[in-house]
Amino acid sequence: MRILPLSETASLHLDRQVMHYQSERDNGELYRSVHKKTQQLLYELPSHLHLLAEEECASFLFFCWDAIDHYITSFQIGRLSYLGYLSQVVRRRSRYYMAQQRAQAQRDILLLKSQRYAWDDEDFSMTGEEPVVYHSSCDPSLLQVEALPTLFEQLLEAPSNTVGTGTAAVDEELRALFCTDRRRLLIVLTLCPDMAGTHLLDELSLLLGVDRQLLSTYLATAETLLDEKKRCREEFETVSNRHFRRLLEIEAQMAGEVDPAERERLEELRSWTARLYKAKVTKIREQEVALTHSEAGRILGIPKGTVDSSVHYIRRLLLRYMDEMGSNEYS
């Protein structure tokens, strides 16, 4: 039974490539080939070995990136193949990676809870700051989500309602498509329920052929799962606003300062505060207030692959049925 992402033949070929490169370090083409294959394995193995969620694999690859050359040159042929050697590396490194992520998340939480301005401390050093990385503290398993799978099943089992509500008008082909297969669209709506605003409920309920009130209840319940992520984003915005206000205060102090030493100190403080402010704004822009595919699958009791395929399917439908596709000169 194959339990690793390479067949035995491919694994043996990779072993020969690595050993060949170790004897010919100047072979640039061979180095690029081995390096690329190592990257692929470092990306695939954590998920394949059930050590990390698939969304974490890219971050883990970058965590190991600087050591790839060391892995290639330190491998020795013996009991383990290069694939087996990398599997052992991934098992060890994943523990360090997860510990680092937990420590960083804890530092972020402490930062958000802090009510003091760091610059008010006379003994504060401006050279020891660390970049702030966003980690969601939302754990759907801890939330009251028992109602969501029940509502999901009710929407799937509800008889198709062909009678429209209000003045909503939808494409008849799309209506027939979704009335017979609601599952995919409901899964996508679960990921970002706030994207379906109140003004779209009529159209969505007509597309799915379900009761508007039942769909509204389902989306409202799903949206409560995002409350913690929204709160975390709002707290980051609050912290960034404090930095911005502090920048304005420093600028005002510098305008009336005549002492060269004090002016130099204010310049350093302004530069440091500006870096913090820019880092936080960047992280806020990167934050997505939405459930991950793994979270949605765990909550609804469906495989993550089903969520992935549903998102892919709905994206293709959007491209097919977008109003502008026939006339947009940029399409």
Summarize the structure in short:
This protein has 14 helices and no strands.
**Straight-line N-to-C gap:** 46 Å
Largest sheet: none
Find the count of extended strands (DSSP E, 2+ residues).
0
* Unreliable runs: 115-144, 164-168, 324-331
Integer average pLDDT:
77
Instruction: Output the number of helix runs.
Output: 14
Structural class by secondary-structure content: mainly alpha
The share of residues in extended strands comes to: under 5%
Shape: flat
Rg of Cα set: 27 Å
Order of helices and strands: HHHHHHHHHHHHHH
Helical content, roughly?
55-70%
Number of domains: 3
Write structural notes for this entry.
With 331 residues, this protein is mainly α. It has 3 domains: 8-107; 114-138 and 227-286; 144-226 and 291-326, no CATH class. Helices cover 65% and strands 0% of the residues. It is built from 14 helices and no strands. It has helices at residues 8-23, 28-48, 57-64, 68-74, 82-113, 147-157, 172-180, 183-191, 201-208, 212-224, 227-255, 260-286, 293-300, 304-321. The chain is flat, with a radius of gyration of 27 Å. The relative contact order is 0.08. Residues 115-144, 164-168 and 324-331 have low confidence and may be disordered.
